[in-house]
Amino acid sequence: MAETQKGWKEIPIGGLIKEAGSALKYKTGDWRSRRPIVDLDKCTHCLSCWIYCPDSAVIVKDQKMAGIDYDYCKGCGICASVCPAKCILMIQEAEARKGESK
Amino acid sequence: MPRIVALTGNEAAAEAMRQIEPDVLAAYPITPQTEAVMKFAQFVADGIVKTEAIPVESEHSAISAAFGAASAGVRVMTATSSQGLALMWEILYIVAATRLPVVMMVANRTLSAPINIHCDHSDTMGARDTGWLQFYCENNQEIYDLMLLAIKVCEDHDVLLPGMVCQDGFITSHSVEGVKILDDQVVKQFIGQLKLHFSLLDVDNPITVGPLDLQDYFFEHKRQEAEAMKVAYEKLPQYFEAFSKICGKRYDFLDLYKMDDAEIAILALSSTCGTARVAVDVLRENGVKAGLIKMQVFRPFPAKEIVDAAKNLRALAVLDRAEGLSTQGGPLFADVCAALYQSERKLPVVNYIYGLGGRDINVDQIKNVFSDLQKVTETGKLEQLVNYIGVRD
Does the distance separating the beta carbons of B221 and A14 come in below 8 Å? Predict the structure, then answer.
């Protein structure tokens, strides 16, 4: 966001946001210390995770659980907790990143 | 035609509110403010005003409801005193920082403990840094007038800050005086319609009010708020002028009494100025060049005006109806000293704490303050920086 930062004379007063859905621009996934990993083979697509996710970070395609949007998932673990099929595993974010290419 | 009506300070506030006819009023009763809201509630019940009056369960709820309603873009008012203002605390900052021009009447009352329902300025002085404009009224006429003026300046699009119109609890809130009431139409034309730049209920232009604002933008929003208070200071004179055209009296940041050739003076707020004026008159009859600086607007703080008013003085006493408990005097004293520090000459300034918990102050006590000031001018020495009037040793 650094390149778009504006001065105090250029922004709406009072912290008002005049644009709907602007939270999409604010990627909060880097707050995460634990990452949910979904085993889609075991998933029954009950969508409990989608109902409970406080950040709307569960991706649903054709009425089926299709994964987690890591741009916004804060790693709270509610999805893993409510999953009746126990197919969501929370792992350490640092461990998950070790395996990712930069 | 304007008419003179016998009203208490609370009734004068209610009368101003009747004419302003806010879209929403959210309030909770507390002594000594109760009568203002009670009277206004009667106007609502009688169908005299179309205001939506919200009886809430606490002052925290009152100011929260005011915040919500104001976010919808409508004119909102409230009123409180003392512990009620204290309970509003966190939302006072939020209303100001969200730039909602809510106006409230405060009947000044001390803060517990020990519990006491009478006047001092501890409540609003504690709220002096919340971002609300603060007006202090000497009498019932000023309460009525400054309520109208406050609406006008707070709703200015370059200001958009809330404001408190403060009067001395019981001393004026429950005393009857003749108050000149302007015609309803004249008032309505003066204050006009509120046109806020947003409304939470405007579904065609969805907005977010009160979002998270972290290291990257919070400071910029606070900087805007500081600028708004500066603009309020710059624009107030044009509103004093505009208001003088309908009410006949020109208000100002300071109301100066016999200051042209004064050598010693007292600076004070609210009803005590009436007592001080009598003391000045008595001293003048005895050839003492005494004067009075009544501060009408405390936020924004009129620093330049104080320096100008004090430029020919040889000594000044600041009367605080609040104990700052800093060991360095009251809050008014601190701000006045800070303003005078911008002046090149070093004027001896002494502080007097008085009237806490409703303790009376009389003409003789104020004359004694002037005697102290005379001694300062003779000896050039300040015996004691912070003094107390009327407390038993």
Answer: yes
Looking at residue B130, its amino acid is T
Cα B381 → chain centroid:
33
With beta carbons under 8 A apart, name residues in chain B contacting A17: 207-208, 211
Domains of chain B: 3-247 (3.40.50.970), 254-388 (3.40.50.920)
A19 within domain boundaries: no
Residues B319, B263: Cα–Cα separation, whole Å: 17
Would you call the peptide bond into B113 cis, given omega within 30 degrees of 0 as the criterion? yes
Predicted ipTM? 0.89
> Tell me: the pLDDT tens digits for B48-70?
999 999 999 999 999 999 999 99
Residue pLDDT, tens place only, B178-193: 999 999 999 999 999 9
Whole-model pTM: value is 0.93
Residue of B nearest to A18 (CA): B207
Q: What is the Cα–Cα distance from A26 to B198, expressed in whole angstroms?
A: 23
Q: Is residue A74 a part of any domain in this protein? A: yes
Q: How many domains does chain A have?
A: 1
Query: B195 or B272, which is more confident?
Result: B272
CA distances (Å), origin B128, targets B60, B66, B172, B301 = 18, 19, 21, 10
Beta-carbon separation of B98 and A6 below 8 A: no
> What is the extent of the structural domain holding A90?
28-97
Residue A15 and residue B213: Cβ atoms within 8 Å?
yes
The residue type of A33 is S
How do beta strands B176-181 and B163-168 pair?
A: unpaired
- The structure tokens listed for B97 are 């920082």
Cα distance between residue B218 and residue B239, in whole Å: 31
- We report the CATH number of the domain holding residue A61 as 3.30.70.20
Q: DSSP class of residue A98?
A: H
